[in-house]
Design brief:
The structure holds two protein chains of two kinds. By secondary structure, chain A is α/β, with parallel strands linked by helices. Chain A is 34% helix and 25% strand. In chain A, a hairpin with a 2-residue loop joins strand 9 and strand 10. Chain B has two domains: 23-60 and 176-326, no CATH class; 75-165, no CATH class. In chain B, strands 2-3-1-4 form a four-stranded antiparallel β-sheet. The chains are: A alpha/beta, B alpha+beta. Chain B: Keywords: Cell membrane, Membrane, Transmembrane, Transmembrane helix.
């Protein structure tokens, strides 16, 4: 469950010039029920990644209130935020894999942060790597992989711990059409199991094939919710 | 694939700990920190040895010399101001009712001869009339500190009316001065220990911050994935505690020969008989016995505490440093 009320957000990057960063989000309000699926649309620079950053608890709203998985963010303690983050899976636009860890350990991170037993970790990681078609690359390091392979590692890491909320930023931009379709099938299944999913994308063909409720941003404002 | 093989329990535990991307072996390397901590442990051990030695000397000097007054009566056999007694007897009689005196003792001929032997040789009869020497021992609890100490000057005045020319010398003054000197040495040594500990804190904080900067990317990532501050701080703190423990241990072992040497030099002052050199130093039991006999117990205890103390300083400092750094993240 996600609920935003009048959320505005400005990056805190007052550089040496003292010039303030542009406002990335203005007065955004919407809600997504648990198990809901949303496309997040808008031209480049509209604020899609910024909105996903707030939802991933990577920054706090400058003004307005945010409620996530039943927790109000503003008054929450740091430990509570950390617990909440463990229930969220994120596919970053730039993947954010750890280059010096093997693919296996990259994907295992969310489970290990939950202190799950190692034999369980092994089984889960191999299962998800097989599913994304990287069963044979577990020992490789991310820099040795193609862009599409890295993106699939990032997807595997985002969903391996069955998070309650999945946030995906352009998760199909390095995938071929077949892989993109499989990913959308996975998201549909997860959504059916009660996972809330928000997918930011520019992929018009994919949106046409999978019509769904969409949130659209323009210059940081929400211009469509439906 | 290594992951598919069933590794030993230890290897598996190790792998799970290391595989969170923090790579602490690289963030906090195992060379410089233990070496510096070892050097500081040697300094701390020396300072602690100084503190222990000063404390022992202070106790001896203050207690030993503080309670003794020496009284010289020239012409002891001449008649006193109020005959018929001699001057020496009159002084002894006057001292008998000094409050707080535990013992009044006039040195006999043999004792006087022993006292003068270095200057006059082993004579038993002297051409000169020797003054009578009387030792006045004060009970310990009426020492200089309690204020009940008989003022040497007023005592001298009182004795002068009985036997003019009588001298009173108070050893307590010297005892108190030596005691104060030992106390200041003790304080300086403790200050040195505190300074070494302070430097250790600064050093470990700087090392931790360098490690945080080196691993900024993985730390930010696992923080974003829900690793708690406690988890990340704990991983770093366990690492520095281990490195500091190793350094502290190495330092206290390195300090041992120095301390044994020092305490042998200091033994005559502390009145502990220097033990004979061991027949075969390679024998561990002999070596341990030698250490136990040579070093004062408080020093051995503080030596043993050095490595755990270094580890504690390392753990606490790193916890505080990492938690403060993590607060800059959302
Ligand atoms: N780290 C940052 N510091 C300062 N400003 C930023 C930062 N990241 C983004 N911005 C600004 O915030 C605004 C929104 O950017 P955002 O990345 O959210 O857009 P987007 O919709 O994801 O674009 P794209 O489709 O290109 O990924 C832009 O004006 C951008 O310049
Ligand atoms: Mg973006």
């Amino acid at each position: 469950m996600i609920r935003l009320r009048d959320v505005s957000f400005r990056y805190e990057t007052a550089g040496a010039s003292g010039a303030q960063a542009p406002v990335a989000l203005r007065q955004v309000s919407f809600a997504v029920p648990q198990g809901g699926f949303r496309w997040l649309l808008g031209p480049s620079g509209a604020g899609k990644s910024s909105l996903l950053r707030l939802l991933a608890l990577g920054a706090r709203p400058t003004t307005g209130t945010l409620e996530l998985l039943g927790t109000s963010i503003a008054p929450a303690r740091r430990a509570a935020l950390a617990r909440l983050r463990r229930r969220i899976g994120v596919v970053h636009q730039d993947f954010r894999l750890l280059p010096d860890l093997p693919v296996f350990d990259n994907v295992a991170l969310p489970l290990r942060l939950q202190r799950r037993p190692e034999d369980e970790v092994r089984d889960e990681v191999h299962a998800i790597l097989d599913w994304v078609g990287l069963g044979s690359r577990a020992a490789a390091r991310p820099p040795q992989l193609s862009g599409g392979e890295q993106q699939r590692v990032a997807i595997a890491r985002a969903v391996i711990h069955r998070p309650a909320l999945v946030l995906a930023d352009e998760p199909t931009n390095a995938l071929d059409e077949h892989q993109a379709t499989r990913l959308m099938d996975l998201f549909r299944d997860l959504s059916g199991l009660g996972t809330t999913i928000v997918v930011a994308t520019h992929n018009d063909a994919l949106i046409r094939r999978r019509p769904a409720h969409a949130l659209e941003l323009a210059h940081g404002r929400l211009v469509r919710d439906g | 694939m290594a992951e598919r093989a069933a590794p030993g329990l230890l290897a598996r535990w190790h792998r799970a700990r290391r595989a969170d991307g923090l790579a602490l072996r690289r963030a906090l390397p195992d060379r410089l920190l233990p070496l510096l901590v070892a050097a500081m442990a040697v300094l701390a051990a020396l300072a602690l040895a100084g503190a222990t030695g000063a404390a022992i000397l202070s106790a001896r000097w203050s207690a030993g010399a503080a309670s003794l007054l020496t009284i010289q009566v020239p012409d002891p056999d001449a008649p006193a101001a109020s005959p018929p007694s001699t001057r020496a007897d009159a002084v002894l009689a006057a001292l008998a009712d000094t409050p707080g005196a535990s013992r009044v003792h006039r040195l006999d001929k043999a004792e006087l001869a022993a006292l003068l032997a270095p200057w006059l040789g082993q004579a038993t009869e002297f051409a000169l009339t020797l003054p009578a020497i009387i030792e006045l021992h004060m009970a310990a609890e009426t020492g200089a500190e309690t204020g009940a100490d008989p003022d040497a000057a007023s005592l001298a005045r009182r004795l002068a009316t009985v036997a003019p020319g009588t001298l009173v010398e108070r050893n307590a003054e010297w005892g108190a001065r030596l005691g104060r000197l030992a106390d200041s040495l003790h304080g300086c040594a403790l200050l040195a220990v505190a300074i070494v500990a302070g430097i250790a804190v600064v050093l470990i904080a700087a090392t931790t911050r360098a490690g945080l900067a080196a691993r900024r990317m993985p730390i930010e990532l696992i923080h974003a994935m829900g690793a708690s501050d406690g988890y990340i701080a704990g991983r770093f703190a366990r690492r520095t505690a281990l490195l500091a423990f190793v350094g502290g241990l190495a330092g206290s072992v390195a300090a041992l020969p120095l301390l044994v040497l020092l305490s042998r030099v200091a033994a005559p002052f502390a009145q502990a008989a220097p033990s004979p050199a061991p027949a075969s130093p390679a024998d561990w039991a002999t070596l341990l016995a030698l250490l136990r006999d040579t070093l004062p117990t408080p020093l051995i205890v503080t030596l043993l505490a050095l490595a755990p103390a270094a580890a504690t300083i390392g753990w606490l400092t790193t916890q505080a440093t990492v938690r403060a750094w993590l607060r800059t993240l959302p």
